[in-house]
Design a protein that fits this description.
alpha+beta, three-stranded antiparallel β-sheet
């Protein structure tokens, strides 16, 4: 049986709600690019149901094309903030904060568990610390075994970078999320996340 990458219905719905809340000029550049049947699928999928990644990417690719990479990362960072407060993910988030404190390390570690709840057959998220202290830190986040569909256009890679940026903001830390060049035959994304 072949893998069918998918994303939870609540994640897609939050992204769609965010697209509909954009200023009118940006909405006009995004929503007409998304097929009506894709919008209907996202709206009709139960929150805990699965939307095929191929369909979800029709929305995120339209957002990426209309907003450009910096705008798209900012948009997904803001949507990630909303997603972290969804009951399923909020439980994991609260547990991570209780165990490890509100730090970038805690949230990045937490993201590996949240990943399993929000995505299916979409690779494996790995946390690798390099330098951690109260003054700052650096970790490597890797999405391994990325299905070919998610390697196209760079949209998915940038969306994940936006989520990592949200963690730094939520902890009120200045930092950077750098996506390493995956190369032509990549099967993973590697992010250097650092903060002070």
């Amino acid at each position: 049986m072949s893998l069918q990458p998918a994303i939870r219905g609540f994640v897609c719905r939050m992204i769609l709600e965010g697209a509909r809340a954009l200023p009118a000029d940006k909405q006009r550049r995004v929503l007409p690019r998304v097929p009506e049947q894709t919008l209907a699928l996202i709206e009709s999928t139960p929150r805990m149901g699965w939307v095929p990644m191929e369909e979800s990417m029709k929305l995120t690719e339209a957002l990426h094309a209309a907003l450009g990479t910096p705008g798209f990362r900012q948009f997904l960072s803001e949507q990630s903030e909303r997603m972290a407060s969804y009951p399923l993910l909020q439980t994991f988030f609260d547990g991570a904060v209780r165990l490890f404190g509100l730090t970038p390390q805690a949230l990045l570690k937490w993201s590996t568990y949240a990943w399993e709840q929000a995505f299916r057959d979409s690779g494996r998220l790995v946390y690798q610390p390099h330098r951690e202290s109260t003054e700052g830190g650096r970790v490597e986040m890797r999405l391994e075994d990325v299905p070919p569909l998610l390697l196209l256009e760079g949209t998915f890679a940038q969306a994940l970078a936006g989520a990592f940026e949200m963690f730094l903001r939520r902890c009120e830390r200045k930092g950077r999320v750098e996506l390493r060049d995956p190369g032509p035959r990549a099967t993973r994304f590697v992010y250097d996340v650092s903060w002070e």
